[in-house]
Amino acid sequence: MSSEFGKILKVSVFGQSHGTAIGVNIDGLPAGEEVDLEELQRFLDRRRPGKNPLSTARNEGDVPEILSGLLDGRTCGAPLCAVIRNSDQHSRDYDDLADKPRPGHADYTAWVKWKGCADMRGGGHFSGRLTAPLCIAGGIAKQILARRGVYVGAHLRSVGNILDMPFPEQPTAELFASIAAKPFPVLEDKNGELMQHTIQRAKQELDSVGGVIECAAIGLPAGLGDPMFDGVENRLAAALFGIPAVKGVEFGEGFTAACLHGSQNNDPFAVENGRIVAETNHAGGILGGITTGMPILLRAAIKPTASIAREQRTVSLSRMEDAQLQIHGRHDPCIAHRAVPVVEAVTATVILDLMLEGNHGTF
Amino acid sequence: MSSEFGKILKVSVFGQSHGTAIGVNIDGLPAGEEVDLEELQRFLDRRRPGKNPLSTARNEGDVPEILSGLLDGRTCGAPLCAVIRNSDQHSRDYDDLADKPRPGHADYTAWVKWKGCADMRGGGHFSGRLTAPLCIAGGIAKQILARRGVYVGAHLRSVGNILDMPFPEQPTAELFASIAAKPFPVLEDKNGELMQHTIQRAKQELDSVGGVIECAAIGLPAGLGDPMFDGVENRLAAALFGIPAVKGVEFGEGFTAACLHGSQNNDPFAVENGRIVAETNHAGGILGGITTGMPILLRAAIKPTASIAREQRTVSLSRMEDAQLQIHGRHDPCIAHRAVPVVEAVTATVILDLMLEGNHGTF
Amino acid sequence: MSSEFGKILKVSVFGQSHGTAIGVNIDGLPAGEEVDLEELQRFLDRRRPGKNPLSTARNEGDVPEILSGLLDGRTCGAPLCAVIRNSDQHSRDYDDLADKPRPGHADYTAWVKWKGCADMRGGGHFSGRLTAPLCIAGGIAKQILARRGVYVGAHLRSVGNILDMPFPEQPTAELFASIAAKPFPVLEDKNGELMQHTIQRAKQELDSVGGVIECAAIGLPAGLGDPMFDGVENRLAAALFGIPAVKGVEFGEGFTAACLHGSQNNDPFAVENGRIVAETNHAGGILGGITTGMPILLRAAIKPTASIAREQRTVSLSRMEDAQLQIHGRHDPCIAHRAVPVVEAVTATVILDLMLEGNHGTF
Amino acid sequence: MSSEFGKILKVSVFGQSHGTAIGVNIDGLPAGEEVDLEELQRFLDRRRPGKNPLSTARNEGDVPEILSGLLDGRTCGAPLCAVIRNSDQHSRDYDDLADKPRPGHADYTAWVKWKGCADMRGGGHFSGRLTAPLCIAGGIAKQILARRGVYVGAHLRSVGNILDMPFPEQPTAELFASIAAKPFPVLEDKNGELMQHTIQRAKQELDSVGGVIECAAIGLPAGLGDPMFDGVENRLAAALFGIPAVKGVEFGEGFTAACLHGSQNNDPFAVENGRIVAETNHAGGILGGITTGMPILLRAAIKPTASIAREQRTVSLSRMEDAQLQIHGRHDPCIAHRAVPVVEAVTATVILDLMLEGNHGTF
What we know:
Four copies of one chain form a homotetramer. Chain A is of the alpha+beta class and about 375 residues long. The first copy, chain A, has eight helices and 18 strands. The two termini of chain A are about 35 Å apart. The mean pLDDT of chain A is about 95. Chains in contact: A-B, A-C, A-D, B-C, B-D, C-D. At the C-D interface, strand 1, helix 2, helix 6, strand 11 and helix 7 of C face strand 1, helix 2, helix 6, strand 11 and helix 7 of D.
């Protein structure tokens, strides 16, 4: 297995939902970078549950302890390891689940892979809780990037069938900040209200609902990335599919491009203030795996929460027979809004990795 | 840069469209596997241009020479390197392009990355021609997989707004073979005719059109893959985005899952003939990054061909000013149908890699 | 940077000597493996300082806390992260050193690499203290290997010019256990006494001394490893050079082979009890990067401790002028004997990685 | 398996001694670098057999064809693939060997790993002939490095018990060039004559002899490399053990350091012309895995050629019984002198990789 991604900057995530602690080891951070722990905490709080009635009641706290990698508040070149203790575990809520894999969860595949030895309490290592360590890495990456004029932001593009407007072609750091400050991460708050109604209704129906997250990054130079298998899209997709519940990733027009004509989808080049720019950004800032200098634009599809309160059909692993399952405990009827900072975090981490690698195209 | 993918089975692609040769080095093939070169050639022919009036007139031939890795028709454990000589190059067709990057192509990003030293004749290393070596690797992988009862197939799910029906929930090797034998790779030929009309119309309008490819793999055991960043989705996506023009990848319901309720998207488990199966396959055969034993199902979005005959706005790199571009030469008005075996090839290669790695979950 | 090694089993080390904690994240351990924490502690104690007058007075304790990866005393498939808190830090002892790089240490290279931002208190991330986390990984690996009949053992082959006898051609698990139980890890205790005298004398002379560690592994099947760059020697050497102070690694006859004739160095094959064996083991159990089934035999050269009490010439980084340096604090006059379990640990970890990967040669 | 090394610059070797061709794919070369093919050929000729009576009679030619990666004599960013056709194969010479593994060769381990399917004619993929592709990569790397003032050179430090003098503490590009121009690569020609006598005598005795190669690199900046497992020593050793017959690698004083006192082995720092230098170079230019700016100095032990003309004891694989083996055909009684440019090539390639990666320590 490998709960790690990155090339120059390697991020390794560890922990199980109901184990002693979760955490992250970040190897390859440049030295001398200030880490503002309060700002980091504010970023982590964006994915916290319990902020509004749409999220699980579990009060995680999620205050990381930095075990290494900092000296007087600055990175020192050594790997930065941060841990979050698990304090609020109701493992009993999950007792029934050990024998009955939850549809849509990794319970069954983990049971097969680890021959019944996996710690699946609360989803174990597959839990959405493991996205908190990703946000530690991403929150630090965002601080380092911002000092170089590179900003990453995200919003909920849809929940169920309710859409938010897309990012403008040239999003700004201010726009990203304004979304980050909102209790519900959308561009148009009235869209957010409709989304929240959709989520509430799903909850009342003992059901759940999915969504799409749109993420953008601005301020990158042209020329980052590589052709074929080590391109910006490959590396972002490989990391983003590591976020639990992500089932699709697209860049620029993405799947919509398949419906367009070349004359619609091509981005004409133009010279503007002595710089080459693209007049449109259907490519999402990436051509041939390499950045164009335009904003990177991507979307990740988040499936509906697999844990729903309705009774579901499953099997008993011990008796190898069909069974009914009733999931108790606290579960978000939608995780897409909480996943917004996670997509931001993973995107920022990959972008920092790309920038650290730099452009080895010439020497 | 890294024109390579894979973990146990490493596939490295080399060559430029108008250089001496293109090819692939495949490191990690198991020994003792027969390679049927005629069957391989039939597979390669599926992506060849010139089969019908929809494709470019260039007659590539594309008969690979195997330089290493075979002994008496069987793999011998050593890396298998295969090359295809480039014979039919009309480099002059591209002379104008050196100074004027084609919108939607990597011409500009390659120029930035390699400071004007890139070989961009015919797209250079970014050319769709580089998918021929991928098909050599994939064609060999398909032969090895088939001997283990694992089959990979693909079809055009859409071209522009014309849809083919989706794969059935349990596709068969026979279905895959029947699509592979068709001149146009769809499930329902009448959909294929409509698609071909769409492509023809785009061509007449000096334009191009995109499409979506759906790919499935059957016969895999449950338990392959890993959580988080080394999962089946991560590895497939990282490889698939290496195919030129792919702008989106999704698994199972993919982006549609974002519109579904959990009760619709979850796949109930059931015991069938003493085996645990999922009654539906919205997950596309993957939960938590690990195979469920159900078919793997994925879709890749192919953008419309960037090279269109219409005049387009671009820039002159030497004069740093706006310019008009007229692309001459032969270009497919759609590459999605030719990319079908490529998606199949890359998927098969990643799956063979996963199967070679096996399940290290227990020891 | 990358303080990580391994392919299927990835071991990431973090921490600085005088930071909050040091630790290790082990990704890829097979599930269901019992971890005997008392046995692990006994292994960790073998590298502890303070066991005898030859080692530093710092009482490290070194009791790891397992944060993840265990469920009811068994591995659960998720990464195992273990930390050791740093409690006994006398950072002031090192205050003078920030400006004056110690000859033979990484102080200067770290200062260049991290532009003065490195945490070099006590050697920082380069400290020999970072070998404690390696021993956690190796100690767990040794338990897993022992259940498969694979054993790893090591002894001091030399200190200064004092030699211990070499391992016999077929070392046994009992021999390894007997060395591990000794306060000073040699085959012949009288050699150990001479070595300890050598170390004591170096200490009295305000100096230090180096040594060679010999390590063997028994019980491995033939056929592990790969040709050229992913062979057993490559992977072991890459990991062993990660142990601070290792300046040479050799396998089988190693550098001595350069003085031998082929007729002396070749190991004749023979059939013994229906198995193919080598009659001698000059190859150290590895031919062409692949295990022969004979014991793996390697040696690592440990340079003399760089921190010596004598006054040394160095520079003042702040004033860019020559300077004199007097190192205070506690320093081992020899670290080779404490490095014996570390070499054992790293070797065991790499071997477990190789065994988990298995033999993909055929399928 | 993985016949590949490198991080930013990846070098993949393919081919079998008696297959169609051998070659190398080099991914990650910077663009715009001139490749002087005549100079490359001169470098390749240094490892050619047939130059003097000490080497095998096979006339390999070894003129590579560059298939990709060059445009008008300069690298273009795309992978550079070069092949050398195998023309002079006397496969019959090896017919007897298929059943009787040669002691000291990979015949047996390859037979185990690939279950009898390996192509072992002439050593197959394990043949010393596979070092020709390594020299293509290294020869190109040397040209690129020389343009940056970085030079790599090597000589035979010993053959059997005959020693050449060591490199001076500050070797020069001129010294490297003068050795490269010699028919026998030593510093003192009279030592070379003694070595050649030793080799001749071994040949007359139907035997072979080993040697030690010393390699140095000058002109590197301080600060390259990383702590622990991604350091300069780790990466060089991992690559060097990929050269067939290398059984030991050491840096600076290496194994000799184990016999020294700290006061002898530490390199005092001093300020010289406004730069920090080390007064001596026992560390071989590397401290804590990171370059000091002093010359890199390493030695590789080459075992005696395994193929000797004397009758040897082995087994018959088909009959599983003891057997006698008489190796016919042409074999070098010593390969150490031919391996000198190979060690140089591998070292240069790793150093170029390190330089391309650059120093990510700060950002």
